[in-house]
Amino acid sequence: MTRYTWRTGILEGFLLLAGVAFLIPLYALLNIALKPANADSGLLTPALHPHFSNFSDAWSTAALGPALGNSLLITVASLALLVPISALASYPLARITRAWSKITFYAVAAGLVLPMQLALLPLYTSIRDLGLLGTPWSLILYYAGLTFPFSVFLYTGFLRALPAEYEEAAVMDGCSPLRTFVSVVFPLLRPVTGTVVILNAIAIWNDFFAPLLFLSGTDSQTAPVALYGFVGQYVSQWPMIFAGLVISVIPVLIAYLFLQKFIIQGFSGGLKG
Questions:
Q1: Residues 8 and 98 in one domain
Q2: What is the dihedral of CA 175, 190, 109, 211, to 10 degrees?
Q3: What CATH number is attached to the domain comprising 125?
Q4: Cα–chain center distance at 23
Q5: Within this chain, do residues 167 and 194 fall inside the same structural domain, yes or no?
Q6: pLDDT tens, 229-250?
Q7: Is there a single domain that holds both residue 121 and residue 47?
Q8: Helix (H) / strand (E) containing 31
Q9: Using CB atoms within 10 A as the burial measure, which of 12, 107, 139, 191 is most buried?
Q10: Considering only CA atoms, which of 71, 67, 76 is closest in space to residue 219?
């Protein structure tokens, strides 16, 4: 048996402190969400008389129902477009060892370090010329392209760690490269697909700037933009804002709880590659 030493005790103490540090923002979020509008706005001052009506008020005043529906539509459609395209693009980059595939991989990975603001003006102009401005399609295409380099990076690293024997057996049985990918390779990518889905879903769901830009002037707003309506120049309704944040984080939290086991598997597989 492993002996319990003073080093183990110190490590456990640090882990407990880290757990408390991570719980403080959650406590502050719920605490302010339950305060009345005219109460002390201190983050850690407890709400002595919880106002659960803040949640219903935030839901109705900010029209969170349609906003959450728009966020869900944009997030799911973006991921449905992103996952197959990035997985297919990563397959030859991981399996072909020629110079052009390495150059292509590094060119795609360069998108991780280039700021998206560089292409924002021409992108906005292109979307406007295509007649997609003010529609969910503008954000779906935007997010699919924005998250493509990160997804290819994860998929390629994971594919390089996978043995190629199953693919070789499928080719010997007469499968085409596309059939081999769909029937053999893609099911093996389940762990990293979960990582790609949850990390990109969180980024897309929480984004504020792109929906504000591409959906400005329309009734189709996402949850972060809808909650921004509670922030004014002179008065900000912080309890309703935090109540709306609690509501908007629930779908992402549920998705994370279902997919959390795939995140570490996807990262560990990619790092091995």
A1: no
A2: 120
A3: 1.10.3720.10
A4: 21
A5: yes
A6: 777 654 567 788 888 888 888 8
A7: no
A8: helix 6-33
A9: 139
A10: 67
